[in-house]
Each structure stands twice: as C-alpha cells, then as structure tokens.
Amino acid sequence: MMFPDREPIIALATANGRASVGILRLSGKGVLQISRALCSQDLSPRHATLLSFKDVRGDLIDEGLAVYFPNPHSYTGEDVLELQCHGSVAALNLLMDHCLTLGKPWGLRLAKPGEFTERAFLNGKMDLAQAEAVADLIDASSALAAKGAVKSLKGEFSKKIDVFLNSLTELRALTEATLDFPEEEIDFIEQHDVFNRLEKILLNIQEVKRATQQGSIIRDGLTVVLVGQPNVGKSSLMNALAGDEVAIVTDVAGTTRDRLKETIQIDGIPLHIVDTAGLRDSSDRVEQIGIERTWGSIEQADLILHLLDASKGNAISVADKELIAQIEVRSAHRVPIRMVWNKIDCAQAHYQNDAKQFYVSAKTGLGLDALKKELLQVAGWQPESEGGIFARKRHIEALLSAEAFIENALRLLKEESSSIELAAEEMRLAQDALSSITGQFLPDDLLGKIFSTFCIGK
Question: What is the mean pLDDT of residues 211-239?
C-alpha cells in the first residue's frame, strides 16, 4: 500500500559538522511545489542541476546541486528533493530554515529518526529486514559487518524467509483442506507428503538460524572483561590486544580506577575489551567506585579473562580463588571464565595452555595468538561461515519461535490421535513469527521502536 500524500519532511542526510559536502533531503506531498519555489524552475527528474540558493530577500545562501526524484521512483516512494551544497553548518542551517519557511503551506516539518526509511518500508520500497539493514550498514564497525549488512539490504535474508512462508502457506492449505473430509485426513496427509515437507522446512529454518547467529556475532561482537588483582597486567594485556597504548601502565597498584573500553577486531569480528579496576579492599573512595563499576561490567560480560601473575608461580592464591567464587556468584555462573597467566617472560617454569588456562606475555606478545583464537571460539565464530546472515536479536527470536511451532506441528501429525486442526494452527503461528521478520505481521508499537533507533535523515 502506498502513502504518497503524507506531509513533507526535511532533514540533514549527511553527518552534522564541517564537511566538503552536505545534503538536505525532503520527502512527501508538496515537495514539487517547494522545489519550484526554492529553485525558481522545474527540475528534470533524476538530473543534477547547479543552482544558487537564495533566501527570501534574494541574498545568496550557497551554491550547489538540486536533484528531484518524483514518486514512486525514489528512496521513500514519495516525491523527494535532495539539495547538495558545501558542508558548512551555518549554510546548511540557513538553507534548512529557508526550506521550512517555503514549505509552511504544505506542513513541512523536521523528520523524526528513521522516518525516511520508515516511509520507504510503508510504501513497499523495502521490507522491514531490509530497512533494518540500512541502519546496520551505517553502524557497521568492520568490513565483514558492512558486507553482511549489504547482503541483507539486497534482500538475501528476506528471500529465504519468503520461501519458508510460501511453503508453509501451501502446507496449511493442504492440511486445512482435510478438515472437510475427516475420514480421509490421514491418507490425504500421507499422499501429499505433508510430514516430510514440513520436516524439510524445519531443517532449513534451523540452517538459517545458525547463519543468523554467525551474523549476530559479526554485528554485535563479544564483550570481554579483564579482571584480576592489582598490577597483574590487565592494562598491558588490553594495550597488547588493541595494538595501541589505550590504557595507562605503571608499576603502581591501583593505577586503573575506572573501566576502560576499547573495540578491536580479530578476523573482522568486533571484540569489546573492558579493562577494569583491580578487585581488592580499598579505602580510596575513587577506587571503590571503580571497583563497583568492575562488578557491573562482570555481570554484563560475554567472557571474563581472569588475569594472574605467572612470575610469582603457578599456584592460585587464596585471594584469586575467592575472586573466582565471587565472579561465579555475581554472574550467576552464566559467564565463561578463562584464566590468563601473564608475564610468562619473567617466569622460570614452562607453561602449557589447556582448555581454560592460557599463558601469555603482554610485554612480548608471546601466547597472544592462541588467546585471540580462543576469544573467537568462545564467540562461536566459524571462519568458514562468512556467509552468515546479518540478523538482529528479534530476528533470531522469531526463528526460534517458528522452529518451536513447526516442531509442535510435526509432533501433532505424528501422534496416532493427531489433531490436524491443531497442527494447522501451529503452522499459522510459525507463519506469523516468520512474517514479523519482514514486517508483514508486526505490532505498530514495535515498528515505532525499531525506527526510533535510526539516525535522523535516514
């Protein structure tokens, strides 16, 4: 359904601040008339026209290009005008104010976050998964993440969902057709191989779910928290992983008094490394606040690296045993812990990694490759699955729901006293779950929440 008569909106489509070029975008009813008033001429569709932009007194604001995109062949499906000029904050603000003045008769207003893309979705220019990929592409923190977002933007994820929906629609039709002939329903189900076809859909959904989980790793990464006694080398390890001096390193215990966070990439996967204050009893109020924040980071972590000093031997101290117990309680045994023995360059004994203990030197870099490999393994990253589908949490939850509903339908069809009607209902619920991914079935309040996370102007 198209909505070409919505009130016009305007926003800065480029980042706010000084730049070589700045772009203002307008969309909606009345944009053609606003364009004529601003440009003093009719613009050729989809052609850039060099113009002088002047205010109501005829004073020059700036020179630049104007491009008019008539509906429905535009980003939003509405009439769209893009004004490209120099990226001066002052000039862009003057031009926007002038446009708002010219657009008053048509109700021109500032756009809300994500409103251009929301209109593109409502006007059928893209589905919801593609719309979300726009924001994911803007926020991509790695080349791998950008590639994944582009795939979703092109509709690769949506096409897979559409295949599932079409298959389920066909099976529902076959299944519900038997309700009028209850004495023949079992033969009918067997004749059309409904059970096996539904099982195949389930296997395909599970395969896509695994791909989305890989895509989620690319998108969100892993939060890794460094903890340990003061002066065991947490800041040094953070610097070594980041490849830069992001944390202050001294021999003075308690140098790090607050959390430091740095995002690094390993094989294109973002890892959010959090260096924390050393956990100890302290009378220093500032350090106490840092220690409390450390516990807050531990509770939100995906992985905890517990650092110990290998130069003092390989026996775990009573204080560190107590620390491990506290971490397990605080994280409700939810967060995996890896013990990292640092300063092996100063140690006398030879150390060998095992499943949960790693030996490194943050100073020389020895052992860091094995630790990085472990970080990726804990994240669940599989290098061979670079075709992972870029997905959000809600997409994965929808796939899990669809998987559960189809499993219920299969169970009902398999039982001797099976209820075809109940199985058909489970298939319908699976369809609804899958449809929420592309936006065919979605509550209005969730739609508003999704687009509110977008930047203004997109």
Answer: 81
